[in-house]
Amino acid sequence: xxxxxxxxxxxxxxxxxxxxxxxxxxxxxxxxxxxxxxxxxxxxxxxxxxxxxxxxxxxxxxxxxxxxxxxxxxxxxxxxxxxxxxxxxxxxxxxxxxxxxxxxxxxxxxxxxxxxxxxxxxxxxxxxxxxxxxxxxxxxxxxxxxxxxxxxxxxxxx
Length: 158
Fold this sequence. Notes:
The chain is α+β, with helices and mostly antiparallel strands and about 160 residues long. Helix content is about 50%, strand content about 15%.
């Protein structure tokens, strides 16, 4: 928390600094230990018993694909645009080849996009042209992410 305060050029450690340091530590430890990412169906409800389990490798692949897509596109996109792009690319690559697989991938990808915004802070929600859009957090450096395996990531096509 002292290091977090220093990042914000603050002489005093505030509750926000402690919370952010705790979040970063939890996230770091969780990323090392987990083979699966467990995402509550409703991220706004702490008492939720419904979860979606996603293999860690699949989570990283989807996260990296979305991050790289937004970085290459260079502008904010609506959540459904990101989702439609990822599903389209998955179908092109043969990752899903039936309706059931597509529905499951849609459900997982929606939850991953939500987690990238609300928990991981990889995506930031902004208002643009009167619409809610998501953009890549400018503090998130995809090139510094050790989990980025660019050869496994879809690339945006213009």
